[in-house]
Amino acid sequence: MVSERLTRAAVAERALCLADAEGLEAVTIRRLAQVLGVTPMALYWHFKNKDELLLGIADHALSAVKATRDPSDPWQAQLRAMVEALVRVIREHPCLTALLQVVDKHQAASFARATNDALALLGQAGFGLRESFWVASYLLQGAVGLVASEPDRCPASLTGPEAAEWRRQRRLTMEKLSPDEFPMVVAFARTLEDAPDLERYYDLGIDLLLAGVEGVAKRNG
Amino acid sequence: MVSERLTRAAVAERALCLADAEGLEAVTIRRLAQVLGVTPMALYWHFKNKDELLLGIADHALSAVKATRDPSDPWQAQLRAMVEALVRVIREHPCLTALLQVVDKHQAASFARATNDALALLGQAGFGLRESFWVASYLLQGAVGLVASEPDRCPASLTGPEAAEWRRQRRLTMEKLSPDEFPMVVAFARTLEDAPDLERYYDLGIDLLLAGVEGVAKRNG
DNA sequence: ACCTGAACACCGTTCAAGT
DNA sequence: ACCTGAACACCGTTCAAGT
Predict the structure, then answer these.
(1) Is the CB of B6 under 7 A from strand C?
(2) Which DSSP letter does residue B108 get?
(3) pTM score, two decimals?
(4) What contacts B44, CB < 8 A, 6 or more positions away?
């Protein structure tokens, strides 16, 4: 690998690619150093330890969250635009699902930015500060959960044919369950033959998240 | 440690305790073997590898999910009872938040049981099979997310005083953000002085989850 | 059937040293 | 300021061997 001068940003960018391609567990100090054409210990100059490196990757990835929303729109529409922007970025960088569970997100500037916008909007919706923060967490976790539970998602480390086999095995284990004990699951397994409509999945998911906020907001206001 | 004869269940139980007390990362084959008073390789007789061990722990913990619900109640009430039962168990075993992200849940019998019940109920609510499964995923991820984002939650590895210091540091980093750029976050940080009302947090969270399902169901029906 | 001992290829991290 | 080399205490896992 080419070994130019390292930068925090360059290291984070490479690590992000590696994590999206092969899963977060592929991002080891030693492996990443090898990809960067450098000694493992070189990374410790730019990041205090592995936790800080992971935080740097998350911060780097989350900085791409940009909601195009019209401040004159009602808060519901603006909130939806924010959630859609968030889901879009997490779909582009699936390693964020693992990353956001592992790192202390509140230390990332890009996360503070998004939280701040959400808090402002939820204030308009009639929530107090504490409630707003809880609702914002619900939305973030929901967005992460949607991508993590995306139909047919398999470990990032698998190649194309391996992934197909993985899905087949998954369907088979569900189909082989006792039809007396688990009739609904067995019936559902049969629907897995056809590829799922991902856009419908995400539309429903985002609807669920926002309908939750709107339902609770109405009750409050 | 006492070294009686090992069982799959006994190993899973011990591992669950260790994971809840010190975090899932404390559950290594070697560490667990030491706690059980046995050689690391002994565990490989009962579990094919570490993934299967983690699945066993999750299955063991999830088997405690028992919703007391009245079949004559409307589906909304029954669904709420199920979500409440799920949240209760995850709160009792916080390592489930990490565990359920890592393992292939659909291979766990106790998970199939809960999924089957949820699918039946969501059918009553007017959802098709595929949609029901997506909604069930939303609820599961939501329950996990609620516990994972519980206010003031800190790494399980920290002891009492360490946890307090961790929370103090966390509040300080948020308070020190630029009040011009992040006014809402800085204002929120000040509310962190008082201990949060966890029951209000979980009530709101569960309301959000169910309001989402009810809102989308109404639109469909 | 159930468990051990030794070995292998990995980790993250520290510390002294080089330029 | 930026990076290297050697070393330490950890991992999961295999394989042959013991009872």
Answers:
(1) yes
(2) -
(3) 0.96
(4) none
